[in-house]
């Protein structure tokens, strides 16, 4: 099989058979920025730091007890952190969700769902493993989440000293589950345009392959 054609077939198969799980990406960079005055400001400062050379990125199996130094090593001070959770929601999972996260953001942080700010805190956030510590947690008990693809992002600034962090969800009053590779959520489904582009690519490669075959026969 033509190498390019094989690549597209593999990609189509991957899209059609995605695992039933969310994808959690963790990114960090150096930053000496202090507390910010809005969710948008946290988002902007952290994004700028991570866009600069020297940032780190990893996909997490489980969003539990996560630290920059534990995942990437190096300094545990003056850190910008961005967590991005991509997930899909089936019709039966849609409804009223709870979203919560226990963080170690010494200079505060913010939470966004699908690009819309849910809230921010500018205090020293250190949850110490307890959701009862409201100063160190984000807790949104009633969030409307419809069927389809979603992205949850947490932005934070840590001055010292990089403690364990966690994020969880609850569907329609059920118990909380930690986001991760086996969290029971539906994998984000590619948009119809993605399939259309891939099928167009298949058609174009097939056309080229037929022309090459015809030339070889001639």
Mean pLDDT: 86
The CATH first-level class of the largest domain comes to Mainly Beta
How many distinct folded domains? 2
| DSSP strand tally | 12
Q: Report the span from N to C terminus.
A: 21 Å
Tell me the fraction of residues in β-strands, as a range.
35-45%
Question: How is the CATH topology of the largest domain named?
Answer: Jelly Rolls
Q: Uncertain segments of ≥5 residues (pLDDT<50)?
A: 1-18, 193-199
Sequence of strands across the biggest β-sheet: 2-1-3-10-6-7
Backbone shape: globular
Number of DSSP helices? 4
Rg from C-alpha positions? 21 Å
Structural class: alpha+beta
* Sheet having the most strands: 6 strands, antiparallel
CATH 2nd-level architecture of the largest domain: Sandwich
Oligomer: single chain
- Share of helix among residues? 25-40%
* Element order: H for helix, E for strand: HEHEHEEEEEEEEEEH
